[in-house]
Structures are given as C-alpha cells and as structure tokens.
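### Sample
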Amino acid sequence: MVRQFLPLNGLRAFEASARHLSFTRAAIELCVTQAAVSQQVKSLEKRLGAALFQRLPRGLKITAEGEALLPTLTNSFDQMAITLDRIEAGQVRELLFLGVVGTFAVGWLLPRLSDFQQQHPFIDVRVSTNNNRVDMAAEGLDFAIRFGSGSWHGTEALRLFDAPLSPLCTPKLGERLRSPADLVEATLLRSYRADEWSTWFAAANVPPAAQINAGIVFDSSLAMMEAALQGLGIALAPPSMFSRHLSSGAIKQPFPATISLGSYWLTRLQSRPPTAAMLAFSDWITSQIPPASQ
C-alpha cells in the first residue's frame, strides 16, 4: 500500500485540541504557540475540505467529521507511543499489561514483582488495580488476576491459590473477644458478598444470630482493612493477604476458623494469543506458588 503524505503536525494538533477542546491547552501540551496549533488545524481542515471544529467564544466544539477522525488518531498515537517505549538503547522491550484485584496486588504481587523484573529485565509491567470487576478487552489487558470460581465467559483461567477468610481486627478490639459468639455483638465490616459472615459463623459453630451488627459495606478488602485498622469494626478478610499487618501486630486474627469462598486466578481472553511476555509471566507466577497451594 502506497500511503499519501500524512500531515502529521496538523493531525497531532487536531488530536490534542480535540481532547482538550482548546487550542490554548493543546499548545501547552505540544510546547508550541496557540497560533501555531490553530494554523496547523486550519491547514488540515483545508486539506480535508471539512471543518473539524466549531469555533465558539469560549472554546471549541468538535464536528461530526472531527468525531469520526479522533478515535483513529488517538489509537494510532497511543500505539506509536507504546512502540517507542519498547525500544530502548537498541533493545526491544516487551510490555505486559496486568489488571489485578487490589488486595492481591498489595498483599502478594508487589512484594515479589522485583524478582520477575530481575529475571526479565526487558519486560515492562504495567499494573492497574481493580475491585474484582474488570473488562479485559476494553482495558487492553494481557492478564487479569481476579478472585472467584474461575468461571468467566470467554476467558482461560489458571488457578493460583485459595484465600480463606477469617475475622481480622485491631488488638484493642480483639481483647474483648473470648469466643466466636462474641462477634454477634460486634460491628462487622463486610464486602458486597452479603453471605460471608453468616457462612463464617456456621463454620465457627455459632448459632444463627437474629441480628448481625453490620457496619460499612466495602467494594474492596483493602478499604475494609483500612477501616478495621482504624478500629471501625471487625473485617472478614484473607489473612494471607495481610501477613505484614499480622506480623507487625497492627491487626490480629482472634479465631482460627476460616472459610473459602473462592480462589485467585490468572485469566486471559481466549481470543488473546499469548505473547512471549505473557508466557514468561505465567511461568514465573506459577513458580512462586508452593505446589500444595495450587
């Protein structure tokens, strides 16, 4: 395919102006004058024979033609930036995009990630955290590490390990707890899974309570544990993900009873062929997990 000459300066000026809806802010981003950005966009419009913006007294309004052009440009510039990032001192760097449930990221992955980087210095890992809700295709992820049953539509899932839940609290609150039944009168913090505490009470042989003193409902164990650290109540969370807090004495596990409601899984889209970076990460993370845990 023979490409016609591409007016890159004009395209870049338009893309920045469309994101900001301002020639002035686009000029700041591109380190040129406002007049230069305006002129480059005008030249592009003249070449296309179509207006890309309506010039308003206070800013810009993108036209239908501009709306049609913008996604292609934004994606193209993003892909160019990613490719340039991969090339450093003559070495091609692989990028690995991970979406990780926040509890796993902080409690397990980050303390070990330097080992992966040492073994694979030319793989750049980009980590985004979530509360176990993720759209791998929309977010452009190579892998998502999530908690659950391992059944997600259109994905291939590799089980990592279970993360049993148990009550966790400050030592001060723990002093009041003599038996699991004492928790019935305590303020219980929980996630959006409403049956967790009742399941744990059954495992601890506590008769069903007429009323549980439910506290704040959280969408992540990290936020719930922060509330527990501040003494707002008793969290039901995986001790294995908060081993540093337990070791330091900031929190305690008052009772040994645990319940397992799922596992952590390494998942990828079935439609996403594994890259060399993905295969390296999959091999590494499985090597970090004792066989008895898998």
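The longest helix spans residues 64-86. This sample (LysR family transcriptional regulator of beta-lactamase) is used throughout the tutorial notebook.
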